[in-house]
Automatic annotation (TrEMBL):
Protein name, entry field: Annexin repeat
Annotated GO MF terms: calcium ion binding; calcium-dependent phospholipid binding; phosphatidylserine binding
UniProt xrefs under Pfam families: Annexin
Keywords: Annexin, Calcium, Calcium/phospholipid-binding, Metal-binding, Repeat
GO cellular component: cytoplasm; plasma membrane
Family: Belongs to the annexin (TC 1.A.31.1) family.
Biological process according to GO: response to cold; response to heat; response to salt stress; response to water deprivation
InterPro entries recorded: Annexin_repeat
């Protein structure tokens, strides 16, 4: 018996990010026992023949892959249904459990949310975990990043349109000296932490302009690209660029499991903010020469793809 032609598309349906549920239903759901046996024998990357016992068994990595890919849609729906405050509180808690490699997520939540939303996330943290976000971070984070992270999540930034330009210029000089100096970690310096954790985002934009004029170079290029300080500056100064880079990394076929999860996070946390999402879409298009919708259509499958595109369309 020959394998039906429609089975040839099954490998594509279960490869990559997401799964093509319709293809699985129409092909596997209607298949005969003999057809599934032929499929298992032909799909050596998914199944291995146990010749002694005369059956084809799943590779462990295939089972793990399918569980993960089927879960992407479910996880996105659950996160989308949550109150934004609870969602952010849980993201911070997860970052603390994972450790230093995930501290950038704490920076993202604290630096890209409005003052009210960050305060709300802190309230949700009380409700969910019976402690404050600040004390949990202070007790889990050790080393030079503690002071910065506690300060960032504690912030309640002014969001008006008034800026004292003289102060911004003065603080640009302070930051320029701190970045240029050696020895003590920049993120441990009290004045740097004070500026980054208390000043309004508009004030920091003015500071950024003055810094670049004073130094003759871009502040973001003068700080290590892999540092937490760079993450904070990028989130505060150019959030659309930050999120575009996150999305591009998550959609790379070589991305690891953790990086791929970033995709859901960005969509469910930003989709309700039309202005921000439109800026992200525009920045992504400028950086990579294709629209975010095109990339999603190309890289993602099934219900997960359709859900992401639906969220994306909210800002059209």
């Amino acid at each position: 018996m020959a394998l039906p032609l429609e089975f040839e598309s099954l490998t594509e349906a279960i490869s990559g990010m997401g799964v093509d549920e319709n293809a699985l239903i129409s092909t596997l759901g209607k298949s005969q026992k003999e057809h599934r046996k032929l499929f298992r024998k032909a799909s050596k990357s998914f199944f291995v023949e146990d010749e002694e016992r005369a059956f084809e068994k799943c590779h462990d990595h295939f089972v793990r892959h399918l569980k993960l890919e089927f879960s992407r849609f479910n996880n996105a729906v659950v996160m989308w249904a949550m109150h934004p405050w609870e969602r952010d509180a849980r993201l911070v808690k997860k970052a603390l459990k994972k450790g230093e490699e995930a501290y950038n997520l704490i920076v993202e939540v604290s630096c890209t949310r409005s003052a009210e939303d960050l305060l709300g996330a802190r309230k949700a943290y009380h409700s969910l975990f019976d402690q404050s976000m600040e004390e949990d971070i202070a007790s889990h984070v050790h080393g030079p990043h503690r002071k910065l992270l506690v300060g960032l999540v504690s912030a309640y930034r002014y969001e008006g349109n008034k800026v004292k330009d003289d102060s911004a210029k003065s603080e640009a000089k302070i930051l320029a000296e701190a970045v240029a100096s050696s020895g003590e970690e920049v993120v441990e310096k009290d004045e740097v932490v004070r500026i980054l954790t208390t000043r309004s985002k508009l004030h920091l934009q003015h500071l950024y302009k003055h810094f670049n004029e004073i130094k003759g170079s871009d502040l973001l290029e003068g700080v290590s690209q892999s540092s937490l300080l760079n993450e904070a500056l990028l989130c505060l100064l150019k959030p659309a660029l930050y999120f575009s880079k996150i999305l591009d990394a998550s959609l790379n076929k070589e991305a690891d499991k953790t990086t791929k999860k970033w995709l859901t996070r960005v969509f469910v946390t930003r989709a309700d903010h039309s202005d921000e999402m439109n800026e992200i879409k525009e920045e992504f298009n400028n950086l990579y020469g294709e629209t975010l919708a095109q990339r999603i259509q190309e890289k993602i499958k099934g219900n997960y793809r359709d859900f992401l595109l639906t969220l994306l369309s909210k800002s059209d």
